[in-house]
Amino acid sequence: MREHDVKEILIDKKAIAERVDALVDEIVAAGQPDRLVVIGILKGSFMFFADLMRSFYRHNAHPHIDFMTLSSYGAGTVSSGTVEIIHDIRENLTDATVLLVDDILDSGRTLAFTKKLMLERGAKSVYSCVLLDKITNRAVEFEADYAGFQIDDLFVVGYGLDYDNKYRELPHIARVNFH
């Protein structure tokens, strides 16, 4: 493991909370589908996903939920280029509107793969919502429908994001500085 520190806070918990509520306002303003299925991509999205779901309550919206565990990083800090399904959803997606929730949009491979898969499984439409959007690192053409914050090409942790399975518990987003 490389020497590192995580002292530099980029986005504090208050800014995250305000942006999560604003994202749900945007999602609901786009229209209430007959059947909305919100799918969290684990592990990194779990805090963001939970806060999004709690915010839906303010709009009297009651989406179905499910989770997928996908891997494209392993223990590294750079995407391997291959997306692997570790744990799949159980929800029937036939004629559903799907909202994919992920922690960070980086290469685009994971969300592009998952969107295609959900459409193949019968979803009427598929949208994506990410906490962080690293717009400089796309390996495939993909843009999030809803994005919390744009960030530079930095390695970040906290609020569910990790470095070697550490720092997920931080209530904010912090930069990992490698020495």
Give the SSE layout.
Layout: E1 4-11, H1 13-29, E2 36-42, H2 46-56, E3 64-71, E4 84-87, E5 97-105, H3 109-120, E6 125-133, E7 146-150, E8 156-157, E9 173-178
Could you describe the 3D structure shown?
Keywords: Cytoplasm, Glycosyltransferase, Magnesium, Metal-binding, Nucleotide-binding, Purine salvage, Transferase. It is an enzyme of class 2 (transferase). It holds the Pfam family Pribosyltran. There is one protein chain. By secondary structure, the protein is an alpha/beta fold. It has one domain (13-153): 3-Layer(aba) Sandwich (Rossmann fold), CATH 3.40.50.2020. Helices cover 22% and strands 32% of the residues. The chain has 3 helices and 9 strands; from the N terminus they run E-H-E-H-E-E-E-H-E-E-E-E. It has helices spanning 13-29, 46-56, 109-120; strands at 4-11, 36-42, 64-71, 84-87, 97-105, 125-133, 146-150, 156-157, 173-178. The strands form 2 sheets. The protein has a 6-stranded mixed beta sheet. A 3-stranded antiparallel beta sheet has the order 1-9-8. Helix 3 (109-120) links the parallel strand 5 and strand 6 (125-133). Helix 1 crosses helix 2 (46-56). The longest helix has 17 residues, at 13-29. The chain is globular.
